[in-house]
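Weekly modeling sync, notes
Attendees: AB, CL, MP (scribe)

Item 1: holo prediction request
CL wants a bound-state model with flavin-adenine dinucleotide before deciding which constructs to order. AB pointed out that an apo prediction alone won't tell us much about the pocket. Agreed to run with the ligand included and paste results into these notes for async review.

Input as submitted:
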Amino acid sequence: MSILVFVEGDQGKIKNSSREAVTYASSIDQSSVVALALGSFEASELEQLGTNGANSVLHASSERLNEGIIQVYAEVLTKAMEECGAHTLVLAKSALGDAVAARTSILSNAGMASNVVALPDLSDGFSVMRSIYSGKAFAHVKLKGANRILILKKNTVELKTNGEPAQIVQFSPELNQEGFSTTITATERVSGEVLLPEADIVVSGGRGLKGPENWHLIEDLASALGAATGCSKPVSDMEWRPHHEHVGQTGIKVSPSLYIAIGISGAIQHLAGVNSSKVIVVINKDPDAPFFKSADYGIVGDAFEVVPKLTEAINASK
Amino acid sequence: MKILVCITHVPDTTSRIAFVNNNSEFDSNGVQYIIGPYEDYALARAVELKEELGGSITVLHVGGAEADPTIRKALAIGADDAIRVNAQPEDSYYVAQQIYAIAKDDSYDLILMGRESIDYNGGQVHGMVGALMNIPSISPVMQLNIENGVAKITREIEGGKELIEVPLPFVAGCQEPIAEWKIPNMRGIMSARSKPLQVVEPVDSDTMTSTLKFQLPPAKGSIKMIDADKVEELVALLKNEAKVL
Ligand SMILES: Cc1cc2nc3c(=O)[nH]c(=O)nc-3n(C[C@H](O)[C@H](O)[C@H](O)COP(=O)(O)OP(=O)(O)OC[C@H]3O[C@@H](n4cnc5c(N)ncnc54)[C@H](O)[C@@H]3O)c2cc1C
Ligand SMILES: Nc1ncnc2c1ncn2[C@@H]1O[C@H](COP(=O)(O)O)[C@@H](O)[C@H]1O
């Protein structure tokens, strides 16, 4: 009885969050973790999943799977669960993973929980702790039925990297034509950038930055830290920054080790997207900004003076 | 164009979240309820599509009578009629089965939902309904246009977006900037009172999950303030104390 883990790539590399999902599965049962990769990947990239805890990798390498068509992927995931007799499917939260898993839960007759933040409790059936109310609370949820699907929030387990390389097994399920009525005609991906939901450190700017022309302050600090950049909702509404950087209740929810908020007031809707960060640093010129109440470290000061100094101090400390 | 918009009835985004009865129940005391913000986007886009292409908009909610004011608000924004399935939304699977039971006989061209509900944050119901109906489900959708029976969609991906073409019908989980939130005007509010709100009983369905108990996150410890002239101190603390650098 194996645990199947759907892993995703970004620009040819397996995402870190997917590697975490593999480690999570191996913490449930280290003897039977099968990672499932769809589309073209280099063999070395897949073998490496063994270091994270996979015992083998099921690779459906058909080029027709290079694009993530939700309906097609859900059918392949369902077939892969049958193929390896898996009752549990684990994956990392992502725009694609969420959409695919929901469909898969119907096709595979599985109970499902998303935003899972801890290992399952197996003492009485199968239950997990998941984040709800946009990070403001947790629920302990029991998954009924023979099959189940778990979508993990980032930073749920410490990534394992000391395993042996995994064996790759080819997998060629029949692809149902119907799903391909959906076509992806173009993909625009900002290349090279650290992906916001994947990042271990996030530097975000708000309306306090005054305009897009000042974003070099945020970007310089982010690059000194190897961080991703984020922003508040008004900043993306005014198109100072692209929508995929917008953090909060109605945007991306992040859970990095370190979140640095600059010129953001700390409205409750913004906090909803960042409250599961391990450590929060706030830089704001207003000592009464609400964000300070939810922060671990704070500096009261003008971003235009403090941020360049901070970037310099980080570069100097390397 | 026949459009179905599925809405939730959720605590306002500024609500304080608390639980009662030994952490087994949400404390709705003093909580303001709203249409889920993502469904508010979906509804706004539905109103625009109706203006452009003609047709009708039905809003659907699975829940108790306490949601009726929220449903009336959706009617005031521009939906033509509403259906409430009179049942507690036990879990996503149960809700999806109820929506499926309504949608399967009613040949909607488009089923719009939010990317996720802001209470349960499942992001699940649209995919489940798509699978049950055996039609495509696409989420999160940032732009949606319809030309000659084919939808052109912009879908958000990590670090960017993709452009998709898909034939009708399908299910979409919507998010900004698909449309601007619409505020009901006086005429809308008046006419909403007389628009039909049909209450139907649920179909029999299993649930796939059950909630055992709720829990609040641990309170944050106290903040350490650092002088703006001594940023090196912050770097040292992040390294040595917080151990995140
Ligand atoms: C339904 C709903 C959903 C929402 N969802 C989200 C969401 O997902 N994400 C989100 O972010 N918001 C969301 N909002 C909006 C939210 O309520 C706030 O309006 C928003 O977060 C404020 O953005 P801000 O902090 O950048 O701007 P402001 O509130 O204007 O704050 C700017 C801050 O910058 C500081 N400042 C100004 N100049 C300087 C300087 N030179 N140096 C340092 N600091 C300076 C100011 O003191 C102030 O604290 C939502 C709102 C609603 C109603
Ligand atoms: N009780 C409900 N009634 C009607 N629609 C719902 C209900 N719950 C969820 N939905 C729809 O499904 C979407 C996704 O919800 P969820 O899977 O709970 O995140 C929401 O944005 C709504 O459009």
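Recorded for review: The domain at 2-217 of chain B is CATH 3.40.50.620 (Rossmann fold).
Action items: CL to compare against the apo run; MP to circulate these notes.
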